[in-house]
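Example S7 (structure tokens).
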């Protein structure tokens, strides 16, 4: 899922258009036993617009070129800091990069020996990096570590979805690109929620 939040290229588009991503996601969800009722009502393959349209929407919506954007960066949707002693004007505000979530994500990435790509230097809490870190924790660390990370760093997806919902479509194909990313967020939310429920059930 991390690949959905990086600028779409031809390889990504081809993997979607061939249907292999839909098949892979369904198979992985089945193997993980996350969603017993799992059945994709919509597929990425059926929702996919032309590559140029997808790229244009991604730039406007997720990179920030346009009137209304929905940056997939955790700090944007949370208070810049929870430190009660902070005296900066933006301390209790949202909408800023490199807040507490970014500093914590940066610490975790460095702690586990993972690199922050140069393009993400000012946003180590970008959704693509958070998902890669989540995958690393799920595979290599304890359930407690993974559970804490998911609960702390992927609890803002509903706010991101709301921001995407508020982005106005410019035409029919642009609307199709918007629906494509709405679907990606909805599926991601389901998987994160189900994983957290599984952890809770295991503790009960």
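Recovered sequence:
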């Amino acid at each position: 899922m991390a690949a959905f939040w990086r600028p779409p290229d031809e390889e990504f588009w081809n993997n979607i258009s061939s249907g292999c991503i839909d098949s892979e996601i369904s198979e992985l969800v089945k193997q993980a036993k996350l969603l017993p009722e799992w059945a994709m009502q919509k597929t990425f393959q059926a929702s996919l617009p032309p590559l140029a349209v997808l790229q244009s929407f991604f730039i406007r919506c997720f990179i920030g070129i346009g009137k209304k954007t929905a940056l997939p960066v955790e700090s944007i949707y949370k208070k810049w800091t929870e430190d009660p002693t902070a005296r900066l004007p933006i301390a209790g505000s949202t909408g800023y990069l490199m807040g507490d979530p970014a500093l914590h994500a940066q610490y975790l990435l460095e702690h586990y020996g993972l690199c922050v790509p140069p393009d993400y230097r000012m946003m180590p809490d970008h959704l693509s990096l958070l998902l890669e870190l989540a995958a690393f924790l799920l595979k290599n660390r304890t359930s407690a570590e993974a559970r804490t990370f998911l609960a702390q760093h992927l609890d803002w997806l509903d706010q991101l979805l709301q921001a995407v919902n508020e982005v106005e479509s410019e035409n029919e194909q642009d609307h199709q690109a918007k629906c494509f990313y709405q679907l990606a967020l909805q599926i991601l939310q389901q998987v994160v929620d189900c994983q957290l429920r599984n952890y809770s059930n295991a503790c009960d």
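Notes on this example. DSSP finds nine helices and no strands in the chain.
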